[in-house]
User: Fold these one by one.
Assistant:
Number 1:
Amino acid sequence: MNPQLQVLIALQDILLMIREANDPSSQRAMGKIGFEMTNLDALETTKTDLEGQLQPPIRSEYSRAQQRHGRIVVPVINSICYGCFVKIPYAIDGADDRNKTLYRCENCGMFLYWVDK
Ligand SMILES: [Zn+2]
Protein backbone atom coordinates (compact mmCIF):
# COMPACT_ATOMS: atom_id res chain seq x y z
CA MET A 1 0.00 0.00 0.00
CA ASN A 2 1.14 3.55 -0.73
CA PRO A 3 2.89 4.88 2.44
CA GLN A 4 1.09 8.23 2.20
CA LEU A 5 -2.24 6.37 1.99
CA GLN A 6 -1.36 4.44 5.16
CA VAL A 7 -0.65 7.74 6.96
CA LEU A 8 -3.98 9.19 5.76
CA ILE A 9 -5.93 6.14 6.99
CA ALA A 10 -4.19 6.32 10.38
CA LEU A 11 -4.86 10.08 10.57
CA GLN A 12 -8.55 9.55 9.88
CA ASP A 13 -8.76 7.11 12.81
CA ILE A 14 -6.87 9.48 15.11
CA LEU A 15 -9.16 12.38 14.14
CA LEU A 16 -12.20 10.23 14.91
CA MET A 17 -10.76 9.28 18.31
CA ILE A 18 -10.07 12.96 19.11
CA ARG A 19 -13.61 13.88 18.05
CA GLU A 20 -15.07 11.15 20.28
CA ALA A 21 -12.86 12.17 23.20
CA ASN A 22 -14.16 15.75 22.87
CA ASP A 23 -17.80 14.75 22.49
CA PRO A 24 -19.58 14.59 25.86
CA SER A 25 -22.46 12.46 24.54
CA SER A 26 -20.12 9.79 23.18
CA GLN A 27 -18.13 9.83 26.44
CA ARG A 28 -21.35 9.20 28.35
CA ALA A 29 -22.34 6.43 25.98
CA MET A 30 -19.01 4.71 26.53
CA GLY A 31 -19.00 5.36 30.27
CA LYS A 32 -15.90 7.47 29.87
CA ILE A 33 -16.81 10.55 31.85
CA GLY A 34 -13.55 12.02 33.00
CA PHE A 35 -11.60 10.87 29.93
CA GLU A 36 -7.94 11.24 30.82
CA MET A 37 -6.49 14.36 29.28
CA THR A 38 -3.13 12.61 28.91
CA ASN A 39 -4.80 10.30 26.38
CA LEU A 40 -6.09 13.28 24.45
CA ASP A 41 -2.63 14.88 24.55
CA ALA A 42 -1.13 11.67 23.17
CA LEU A 43 -3.71 11.61 20.36
CA GLU A 44 -2.94 15.24 19.47
CA THR A 45 0.81 14.51 19.45
CA THR A 46 0.29 11.50 17.19
CA LYS A 47 -1.91 13.56 14.88
CA THR A 48 0.79 16.24 14.55
CA ASP A 49 3.48 13.58 13.92
CA LEU A 50 1.40 11.92 11.20
CA GLU A 51 0.57 15.25 9.54
CA GLY A 52 4.30 15.93 9.43
CA GLN A 53 4.80 12.71 7.44
CA LEU A 54 2.51 13.90 4.64
CA GLN A 55 4.13 15.46 1.59
CA PRO A 56 3.19 19.17 1.37
CA PRO A 57 0.78 18.93 -1.61
CA ILE A 58 -0.97 15.94 0.00
CA ARG A 59 -1.10 17.73 3.35
CA SER A 60 -2.97 20.67 1.84
CA GLU A 61 -5.44 18.34 0.08
CA TYR A 62 -5.88 16.49 3.37
CA SER A 63 -6.68 19.76 5.20
CA ARG A 64 -9.20 20.71 2.53
CA ALA A 65 -10.92 17.30 2.59
CA GLN A 66 -11.05 17.32 6.38
CA GLN A 67 -12.66 20.76 6.48
CA ARG A 68 -15.10 20.07 3.66
CA HIS A 69 -16.17 16.52 4.49
CA GLY A 70 -14.97 15.77 8.01
CA ARG A 71 -13.42 12.66 6.44
CA ILE A 72 -10.29 12.14 4.39
CA VAL A 73 -10.22 8.63 3.00
CA VAL A 74 -13.07 6.45 1.77
CA PRO A 75 -13.20 2.87 0.48
CA VAL A 76 -14.03 1.86 -3.06
CA ILE A 77 -16.33 -1.15 -3.00
CA ASN A 78 -17.63 -2.77 -6.19
CA SER A 79 -16.17 0.17 -8.18
CA ILE A 80 -18.21 2.72 -6.19
CA CYS A 81 -16.64 5.61 -4.25
CA TYR A 82 -18.13 5.57 -0.75
CA GLY A 83 -17.62 9.33 -0.45
CA CYS A 84 -20.11 10.26 -3.17
CA PHE A 85 -21.45 6.92 -4.53
CA VAL A 86 -20.21 7.61 -8.05
CA LYS A 87 -18.60 4.85 -10.14
CA ILE A 88 -14.80 5.03 -10.38
CA PRO A 89 -13.50 4.93 -14.00
CA TYR A 90 -12.22 1.51 -15.05
CA ALA A 91 -8.81 2.97 -15.98
CA ILE A 92 -8.24 3.46 -12.23
CA ASP A 93 -10.52 0.83 -10.70
CA GLY A 94 -9.23 -1.94 -12.96
CA ALA A 95 -5.54 -1.47 -12.13
CA ASP A 96 -3.85 -4.35 -10.27
CA ASP A 97 -1.79 -2.10 -8.02
CA ARG A 98 -4.38 0.59 -7.35
CA ASN A 99 -3.53 0.86 -3.62
CA LYS A 100 0.11 1.53 -4.51
CA THR A 101 -0.80 4.89 -6.03
CA LEU A 102 -2.57 7.64 -4.15
CA TYR A 103 -5.82 8.31 -6.00
CA ARG A 104 -8.52 10.85 -5.32
CA CYS A 105 -12.11 10.61 -6.50
CA GLU A 106 -12.59 12.90 -9.50
CA ASN A 107 -16.10 13.71 -8.28
CA CYS A 108 -15.78 14.37 -4.53
CA GLY A 109 -12.02 14.71 -4.12
CA MET A 110 -11.70 12.15 -1.32
CA PHE A 111 -8.61 9.94 -1.14
CA LEU A 112 -9.46 6.37 -2.12
CA TYR A 113 -8.44 2.89 -1.01
CA TRP A 114 -9.57 -0.45 -2.33
CA VAL A 115 -10.54 -3.45 -0.28
CA ASP A 116 -9.03 -6.44 -2.06
CA LYS A 117 -11.51 -9.08 -3.09
ZN1 LIG B 1 -16.26 10.29 -4.63
Number 2:
Amino acid sequence: MLRLLTAGESHGRQITTILDGLPSGLRIDREALAQGMARRRVGYGRGPRQGLETDEVQVLSGVRFGHTTGAPVTLVVTNNEAGEWAQTLSAFGDPEAGIPQRISRPRPGHADLAGMFKYDHHDARDVLERASARESVGRVAAGEILRALLAALSVRVYSHVIQIGQAKADLQAVPPEEIAGRAEANDLRCAAGYEEMRREIESAMADGDTVGGVFEVVAEGLPPGLGSSMAPDRRLDAALGFALLSIPAVKGVEIGPALENAGRRGSRVHDEILPRPSGLPRRTGNRAGGLEGGMTNGEALVVRGAMKPLSTLRRPLRSIDLETNLPMEAAFERSDVCAVPAAGVIAEAVVMQVLTDAFLRAFSSDTMKRLEDSVGAYREELNERMRRAGEGGRK
Ligand SMILES: Cc1cc2nc3c(=O)[nH]c(=O)nc-3n(C[C@H](O)[C@H](O)[C@H](O)COP(=O)(O)O)c2cc1C
Protein backbone atom coordinates (compact mmCIF):
# COMPACT_ATOMS: atom_id res chain seq x y z
CA MET A 1 0.00 0.00 0.00
CA LEU A 2 2.83 2.31 0.92
CA ARG A 3 5.86 2.59 -1.35
CA LEU A 4 9.17 4.07 -0.31
CA LEU A 5 12.27 4.56 -2.42
CA THR A 6 15.50 6.32 -1.51
CA ALA A 7 18.36 7.45 -3.75
CA GLY A 8 21.62 9.25 -3.14
CA GLU A 9 25.19 8.50 -2.10
CA SER A 10 26.45 8.85 1.45
CA HIS A 11 28.70 11.80 0.50
CA GLY A 12 26.67 12.87 -2.55
CA ARG A 13 24.66 16.05 -2.80
CA GLN A 14 21.53 14.69 -1.17
CA ILE A 15 19.46 11.74 -0.06
CA THR A 16 16.11 11.80 -1.83
CA THR A 17 13.10 9.85 -0.58
CA ILE A 18 9.82 9.28 -2.38
CA LEU A 19 6.94 8.10 -0.23
CA ASP A 20 3.82 7.12 -2.13
CA GLY A 21 0.44 5.90 -0.88
CA LEU A 22 -0.31 8.40 1.90
CA PRO A 23 -3.91 9.52 2.35
CA SER A 24 -4.64 13.19 1.78
CA GLY A 25 -5.21 15.57 4.68
CA LEU A 26 -2.39 14.39 6.96
CA ARG A 27 -1.00 17.40 8.77
CA ILE A 28 2.79 17.69 8.59
CA ASP A 29 4.46 19.78 11.25
CA ARG A 30 7.77 21.21 10.06
CA GLU A 31 9.12 21.62 13.59
CA ALA A 32 8.27 18.02 14.55
CA LEU A 33 10.00 16.82 11.38
CA ALA A 34 13.18 18.70 12.33
CA GLN A 35 13.07 17.37 15.90
CA GLY A 36 12.63 13.80 14.63
CA MET A 37 15.67 14.15 12.40
CA ALA A 38 17.81 15.41 15.27
CA ARG A 39 17.14 12.19 17.23
CA ARG A 40 19.00 10.15 14.58
CA ARG A 41 22.19 12.14 15.12
CA VAL A 42 22.22 11.53 18.89
CA GLY A 43 24.58 8.96 20.29
CA TYR A 44 27.79 8.88 22.23
CA GLY A 45 30.26 7.00 20.02
CA ARG A 46 29.12 8.47 16.71
CA GLY A 47 31.76 9.88 14.39
CA PRO A 48 32.39 13.60 13.75
CA ARG A 49 30.01 13.67 10.79
CA GLN A 50 26.93 13.90 13.01
CA GLY A 51 28.12 17.27 14.29
CA LEU A 52 28.58 18.55 10.74
CA GLU A 53 25.22 17.58 9.29
CA THR A 54 22.01 19.45 10.06
CA ASP A 55 19.73 16.97 8.25
CA GLU A 56 17.26 19.65 7.31
CA VAL A 57 14.40 18.11 5.31
CA GLN A 58 13.07 19.85 2.24
CA VAL A 59 9.58 18.74 1.23
CA LEU A 60 9.45 19.03 -2.56
CA SER A 61 6.13 17.45 -3.45
CA GLY A 62 2.94 15.92 -2.12
CA VAL A 63 2.44 18.42 0.74
CA ARG A 64 0.60 21.70 0.33
CA PHE A 65 0.02 24.26 3.08
CA GLY A 66 1.10 21.73 5.69
CA HIS A 67 -1.12 18.82 4.57
CA THR A 68 -0.55 15.82 2.31
CA THR A 69 -2.43 16.00 -0.99
CA GLY A 70 -2.43 12.24 -1.74
CA ALA A 71 0.40 12.66 -4.27
CA PRO A 72 3.84 11.05 -3.77
CA VAL A 73 5.82 12.97 -1.16
CA THR A 74 9.41 13.85 -2.09
CA LEU A 75 11.79 14.53 0.77
CA VAL A 76 15.33 15.78 0.30
CA VAL A 77 18.10 15.89 2.88
CA THR A 78 21.22 17.62 1.56
CA ASN A 79 24.74 16.76 2.67
CA ASN A 80 26.68 19.70 4.09
CA GLU A 81 30.02 18.34 2.94
CA ALA A 82 28.99 17.42 -0.59
CA GLY A 83 31.26 20.14 -2.04
CA GLU A 84 34.39 18.43 -0.74
CA TRP A 85 33.31 15.18 -2.38
CA ALA A 86 32.26 16.70 -5.70
CA GLN A 87 35.28 15.41 -7.65
CA THR A 88 35.21 11.98 -5.95
CA LEU A 89 31.55 11.42 -6.76
CA SER A 90 31.28 13.43 -9.97
CA ALA A 91 28.69 12.07 -12.43
CA PHE A 92 30.62 13.14 -15.53
CA GLY A 93 34.08 14.13 -14.26
CA ASP A 94 37.25 12.81 -15.88
CA PRO A 95 38.71 9.88 -13.89
CA GLU A 96 42.11 10.68 -15.43
CA ALA A 97 42.10 13.86 -13.30
CA GLY A 98 42.51 11.56 -10.31
CA ILE A 99 40.05 9.84 -7.98
CA PRO A 100 40.54 10.92 -4.38
CA GLN A 101 39.39 8.68 -1.52
CA ARG A 102 39.76 5.55 -3.64
CA ILE A 103 39.42 2.29 -1.71
CA SER A 104 40.79 -1.06 -2.89
CA ARG A 105 41.35 -2.70 0.52
CA PRO A 106 37.93 -4.11 1.50
CA ARG A 107 36.90 -3.91 5.13
CA PRO A 108 35.98 -7.27 6.70
CA GLY A 109 32.32 -7.02 7.72
CA HIS A 110 31.42 -4.27 5.24
CA ALA A 111 29.84 -4.50 1.79
CA ASP A 112 33.14 -3.66 0.03
CA LEU A 113 34.40 -7.07 -1.11
CA ALA A 114 31.10 -8.68 -2.16
CA GLY A 115 29.98 -5.45 -3.86
CA MET A 116 33.22 -4.99 -5.80
CA PHE A 117 32.95 -8.52 -7.14
CA LYS A 118 29.23 -8.29 -7.86
CA TYR A 119 29.32 -4.96 -9.74
CA ASP A 120 32.86 -5.32 -11.12
CA HIS A 121 34.09 -2.18 -9.39
CA HIS A 122 37.75 -1.46 -8.68
CA ASP A 123 36.94 1.27 -6.17
CA ALA A 124 34.91 0.18 -3.14
CA ARG A 125 33.59 3.77 -3.05
CA ASP A 126 31.04 2.71 -5.70
CA VAL A 127 29.66 0.16 -3.24
CA LEU A 128 30.05 1.72 0.17
CA GLU A 129 28.43 5.02 -0.72
CA ARG A 130 25.10 3.18 -0.91
CA ALA A 131 25.82 0.49 1.70
CA SER A 132 26.45 3.32 4.16
CA ALA A 133 23.71 3.97 6.73
CA ARG A 134 23.49 7.57 5.52
CA GLU A 135 20.67 6.27 3.31
CA SER A 136 18.61 5.79 6.44
CA VAL A 137 18.34 9.56 6.88
CA GLY A 138 15.70 9.37 4.13
CA ARG A 139 13.80 6.61 5.86
CA VAL A 140 13.86 8.53 9.14
CA ALA A 141 12.45 11.60 7.36
CA ALA A 142 9.66 9.48 5.90
CA GLY A 143 9.17 7.89 9.31
CA GLU A 144 8.48 11.26 10.90
CA ILE A 145 5.61 11.74 8.45
CA LEU A 146 4.30 8.30 9.31
CA ARG A 147 4.61 9.11 13.01
CA ALA A 148 2.06 11.88 12.45
CA LEU A 149 -0.27 9.46 10.67
CA LEU A 150 0.00 6.87 13.43
CA ALA A 151 -0.46 9.51 16.15
CA ALA A 152 -3.75 10.46 14.49
CA LEU A 153 -4.76 6.81 14.99
CA SER A 154 -3.68 6.96 18.68
CA VAL A 155 -0.52 4.91 18.09
CA ARG A 156 2.76 5.94 19.70
CA VAL A 157 6.15 4.47 18.71
CA TYR A 158 9.39 4.84 20.67
CA SER A 159 12.68 3.02 21.09
CA HIS A 160 15.38 2.52 23.67
CA VAL A 161 18.76 0.83 23.81
CA ILE A 162 18.86 -2.27 26.00
CA GLN A 163 22.44 -3.45 25.46
CA ILE A 164 25.79 -2.10 24.31
CA GLY A 165 28.65 -4.56 24.15
CA GLN A 166 28.41 -6.62 27.34
CA ALA A 167 26.45 -3.96 29.27
CA LYS A 168 22.72 -4.65 29.57
CA ALA A 169 20.01 -2.34 30.87
CA ASP A 170 18.34 -3.72 33.99
CA LEU A 171 14.76 -2.57 33.46
CA GLN A 172 13.28 -4.37 36.49
CA ALA A 173 13.16 -1.17 38.50
CA VAL A 174 12.03 1.12 35.67
CA PRO A 175 8.26 1.69 35.42
CA PRO A 176 7.30 0.93 31.78
CA GLU A 177 5.66 4.34 31.38
CA GLU A 178 9.01 6.02 32.17
CA ILE A 179 11.12 4.13 29.61
CA ALA A 180 10.53 6.43 26.63
CA GLY A 181 11.15 9.63 28.60
CA ARG A 182 14.31 8.33 30.22
CA ALA A 183 15.70 7.14 26.88
CA GLU A 184 15.00 10.51 25.30
CA ALA A 185 17.00 12.24 28.04
CA ASN A 186 20.48 10.80 27.39
CA ASP A 187 22.90 10.36 24.51
CA LEU A 188 22.74 6.56 24.59
CA ARG A 189 18.95 6.57 24.35
CA CYS A 190 18.73 4.03 27.20
CA ALA A 191 16.37 3.85 30.17
CA ALA A 192 18.89 2.15 32.51
CA GLY A 193 22.54 1.07 32.59
CA TYR A 194 23.91 4.32 31.12
CA GLU A 195 27.30 4.29 32.90
CA GLU A 196 28.08 0.66 32.07
CA MET A 197 27.11 1.15 28.43
CA ARG A 198 29.17 4.30 28.14
CA ARG A 199 32.19 2.49 29.56
CA GLU A 200 31.84 -0.18 26.86
CA ILE A 201 32.03 2.51 24.18
CA GLU A 202 34.91 4.36 25.84
CA SER A 203 36.90 1.17 26.14
CA ALA A 204 36.31 0.24 22.46
CA MET A 205 37.24 3.79 21.47
CA ALA A 206 40.49 3.62 23.40
CA ASP A 207 41.35 0.35 21.66
CA GLY A 208 40.56 1.64 18.14
CA ASP A 209 37.69 -0.86 18.10
CA THR A 210 33.87 -0.82 17.79
CA VAL A 211 30.88 -2.21 19.74
CA GLY A 212 27.37 -3.31 18.81
CA GLY A 213 24.30 -3.90 20.91
CA VAL A 214 20.54 -4.32 21.05
CA PHE A 215 17.68 -1.81 20.76
CA GLU A 216 13.98 -2.26 21.39
CA VAL A 217 11.12 -0.59 19.55
CA VAL A 218 7.71 -0.34 21.20
CA ALA A 219 4.41 0.61 19.54
CA GLU A 220 1.51 1.33 21.88
CA GLY A 221 -2.15 1.81 21.04
CA LEU A 222 -2.44 -0.68 18.18
CA PRO A 223 -5.81 -2.34 17.71
CA PRO A 224 -5.86 -6.15 17.53
CA GLY A 225 -5.87 -7.65 14.03
CA LEU A 226 -3.27 -5.72 12.02
CA GLY A 227 -1.44 -8.20 9.79
CA SER A 228 -2.86 -11.62 9.00
CA SER A 229 -2.38 -15.33 9.55
CA MET A 230 -4.18 -16.13 6.30
CA ALA A 231 -1.07 -16.04 4.11
CA PRO A 232 2.59 -16.29 5.10
CA ASP A 233 3.57 -12.99 3.46
CA ARG A 234 0.86 -11.11 5.34
CA ARG A 235 2.17 -12.10 8.75
CA LEU A 236 3.23 -8.94 10.52
CA ASP A 237 6.15 -10.74 12.20
CA ALA A 238 7.61 -11.39 8.75
CA ALA A 239 7.21 -7.80 7.60
CA LEU A 240 8.83 -6.52 10.78
CA GLY A 241 11.73 -8.95 10.43
CA PHE A 242 12.30 -7.80 6.85
CA ALA A 243 12.11 -4.15 7.86
CA LEU A 244 14.51 -4.39 10.80
CA LEU A 245 16.99 -6.52 8.86
CA SER A 246 17.05 -3.89 6.12
CA ILE A 247 18.91 -1.60 8.54
CA PRO A 248 22.66 -1.90 7.91
CA ALA A 249 24.47 -3.96 10.56
CA VAL A 250 21.25 -5.31 12.14
CA LYS A 251 21.77 -9.07 12.14
CA GLY A 252 19.14 -10.38 14.53
CA VAL A 253 15.49 -9.64 15.25
CA GLU A 254 13.45 -10.69 18.25
CA ILE A 255 9.69 -10.41 18.72
CA GLY A 256 9.25 -9.78 22.46
CA PRO A 257 11.74 -11.81 24.53
CA ALA A 258 11.76 -14.55 21.84
CA LEU A 259 15.14 -16.07 22.66
CA GLU A 260 14.32 -16.28 26.36
CA ASN A 261 10.86 -17.70 25.54
CA ALA A 262 12.48 -20.46 23.46
CA GLY A 263 14.07 -21.87 26.59
CA ARG A 264 10.93 -21.77 28.75
CA ARG A 265 7.87 -23.97 29.02
CA GLY A 266 4.67 -22.86 27.31
CA SER A 267 2.90 -22.40 30.61
CA ARG A 268 5.55 -19.81 31.57
CA VAL A 269 5.48 -18.02 28.23
CA HIS A 270 1.93 -17.52 26.96
CA ASP A 271 0.02 -14.51 28.20
CA GLU A 272 -3.27 -15.70 29.72
CA ILE A 273 -6.52 -14.06 28.64
CA LEU A 274 -8.68 -12.64 31.44
CA PRO A 275 -12.03 -10.87 31.22
CA ARG A 276 -12.43 -7.17 31.90
CA PRO A 277 -15.71 -5.60 33.01
CA SER A 278 -15.62 -3.51 29.82
CA GLY A 279 -13.42 -3.32 26.76
CA LEU A 280 -10.94 -5.82 25.39
CA PRO A 281 -9.75 -8.75 27.51
CA ARG A 282 -6.75 -8.30 29.78
CA ARG A 283 -3.54 -10.31 29.34
CA THR A 284 -1.36 -11.46 32.21
CA GLY A 285 1.80 -10.25 30.47
CA ASN A 286 3.23 -9.45 27.06
CA ARG A 287 5.78 -12.14 26.37
CA ALA A 288 4.32 -12.47 22.86
CA GLY A 289 5.57 -8.96 22.09
CA GLY A 290 2.08 -7.97 20.97
CA LEU A 291 1.88 -10.44 18.07
CA GLU A 292 -0.03 -13.71 17.82
CA GLY A 293 -0.64 -15.51 14.54
CA GLY A 294 1.03 -12.78 12.52
CA MET A 295 -1.41 -10.19 13.89
CA THR A 296 -1.32 -7.54 16.54
CA ASN A 297 -3.17 -8.82 19.61
CA GLY A 298 -3.99 -5.50 21.26
CA GLU A 299 -0.95 -5.41 23.53
CA ALA A 300 2.07 -3.20 22.87
CA LEU A 301 4.20 -4.36 19.96
CA VAL A 302 7.76 -5.02 21.18
CA VAL A 303 10.52 -5.85 18.69
CA ARG A 304 14.26 -5.91 19.18
CA GLY A 305 17.16 -5.61 16.80
CA ALA A 306 20.69 -6.90 17.42
CA MET A 307 23.36 -4.76 15.80
CA LYS A 308 26.81 -6.12 15.09
CA PRO A 309 29.89 -4.05 15.98
CA LEU A 310 30.69 -1.71 13.09
CA SER A 311 33.28 -2.90 10.62
CA THR A 312 35.41 0.21 10.02
CA LEU A 313 38.11 -0.09 12.67
CA ARG A 314 40.70 2.53 13.53
CA ARG A 315 43.00 -0.42 14.17
CA PRO A 316 42.18 -2.21 10.94
CA LEU A 317 41.83 -5.95 10.51
CA ARG A 318 43.77 -7.91 7.91
CA SER A 319 42.57 -7.70 4.35
CA ILE A 320 44.08 -7.66 0.87
CA ASP A 321 44.55 -5.04 -1.82
CA LEU A 322 42.30 -6.16 -4.64
CA GLU A 323 44.60 -4.47 -7.18
CA THR A 324 47.62 -6.58 -6.20
CA ASN A 325 46.23 -9.49 -4.15
CA LEU A 326 48.85 -8.67 -1.54
CA PRO A 327 48.02 -8.74 2.18
CA MET A 328 47.18 -5.28 3.51
CA GLU A 329 45.35 -3.68 6.38
CA ALA A 330 41.72 -2.89 5.62
CA ALA A 331 40.87 0.68 4.66
CA PHE A 332 39.85 3.16 7.35
CA GLU A 333 37.87 6.32 6.99
CA ARG A 334 36.02 8.47 9.50
CA SER A 335 33.64 6.16 11.29
CA ASP A 336 31.36 5.59 14.25
CA VAL A 337 32.50 3.50 17.21
CA CYS A 338 28.92 2.66 18.18
CA ALA A 339 25.67 3.48 16.37
CA VAL A 340 23.14 1.44 18.35
CA PRO A 341 21.16 4.52 19.59
CA ALA A 342 20.81 5.79 16.01
CA ALA A 343 19.85 2.32 14.80
CA GLY A 344 16.98 2.37 17.31
CA VAL A 345 15.68 5.61 15.81
CA ILE A 346 15.96 4.17 12.28
CA ALA A 347 14.16 1.07 13.54
CA GLU A 348 11.29 3.24 14.75
CA ALA A 349 11.00 4.58 11.20
CA VAL A 350 10.92 1.17 9.54
CA VAL A 351 8.48 -0.19 12.13
CA MET A 352 6.22 2.81 11.47
CA GLN A 353 6.41 2.02 7.77
CA VAL A 354 5.25 -1.57 8.41
CA LEU A 355 2.48 -0.45 10.76
CA THR A 356 1.20 2.25 8.41
CA ASP A 357 1.13 -0.26 5.60
CA ALA A 358 -0.80 -2.71 7.79
CA PHE A 359 -3.34 0.00 8.70
CA LEU A 360 -3.79 0.95 5.05
CA ARG A 361 -4.28 -2.68 4.05
CA ALA A 362 -6.98 -3.18 6.67
CA PHE A 363 -8.62 0.25 6.35
CA SER A 364 -7.70 1.44 2.87
CA SER A 365 -8.60 5.14 2.69
CA ASP A 366 -7.85 8.05 0.39
CA THR A 367 -8.25 10.63 3.14
CA MET A 368 -7.08 10.85 6.73
CA LYS A 369 -10.61 11.61 7.87
CA ARG A 370 -11.93 8.34 6.43
CA LEU A 371 -8.96 6.40 7.79
CA GLU A 372 -9.47 7.80 11.30
CA ASP A 373 -13.23 7.13 11.11
CA SER A 374 -12.73 3.53 9.94
CA VAL A 375 -10.16 2.71 12.60
CA GLY A 376 -12.33 4.38 15.24
CA ALA A 377 -15.39 2.40 14.08
CA TYR A 378 -13.43 -0.86 14.23
CA ARG A 379 -12.23 -0.15 17.75
CA GLU A 380 -15.82 0.64 18.74
CA GLU A 381 -17.06 -2.58 17.09
CA LEU A 382 -14.67 -4.64 19.23
CA ASN A 383 -15.73 -2.88 22.42
CA GLU A 384 -19.38 -3.37 21.52
CA ARG A 385 -18.77 -7.05 20.86
CA MET A 386 -17.20 -7.50 24.31
CA ARG A 387 -20.03 -5.51 25.90
CA ARG A 388 -22.61 -7.80 24.29
CA ALA A 389 -20.61 -10.88 25.27
CA GLY A 390 -20.58 -9.58 28.86
CA GLU A 391 -24.35 -9.16 28.83
CA GLY A 392 -24.71 -12.74 27.56
CA GLY A 393 -22.42 -14.00 30.33
CA ARG A 394 -24.41 -12.21 33.03
CA LYS A 395 -27.72 -13.72 31.89
C1 LIG B 1 23.18 4.34 12.15
C2 LIG B 1 24.25 3.50 11.54
C3 LIG B 1 25.54 4.00 11.43
C4 LIG B 1 26.56 3.22 10.90
N1 LIG B 1 27.82 3.73 10.86
C5 LIG B 1 28.82 2.96 10.39
C6 LIG B 1 30.17 3.45 10.44
O1 LIG B 1 30.43 4.58 10.82
N2 LIG B 1 31.13 2.62 10.02
C7 LIG B 1 30.88 1.35 9.55
O2 LIG B 1 31.79 0.64 9.17
N3 LIG B 1 29.62 0.89 9.49
C8 LIG B 1 28.59 1.65 9.89
N4 LIG B 1 27.31 1.16 9.86
C9 LIG B 1 27.07 -0.21 9.38
C10 LIG B 1 27.32 -0.42 7.91
O3 LIG B 1 26.53 0.45 7.13
C11 LIG B 1 27.04 -1.88 7.55
O4 LIG B 1 27.74 -2.73 8.41
C12 LIG B 1 27.45 -2.18 6.12
O5 LIG B 1 26.58 -1.55 5.21
C13 LIG B 1 27.44 -3.70 5.78
O6 LIG B 1 26.15 -4.22 5.91
P1 LIG B 1 25.79 -5.36 6.97
O7 LIG B 1 26.52 -5.03 8.23
O8 LIG B 1 24.30 -5.26 7.13
O9 LIG B 1 26.22 -6.67 6.41
C14 LIG B 1 26.27 1.92 10.40
C15 LIG B 1 24.97 1.43 10.50
C16 LIG B 1 23.97 2.20 11.06
C17 LIG B 1 22.58 1.64 11.17
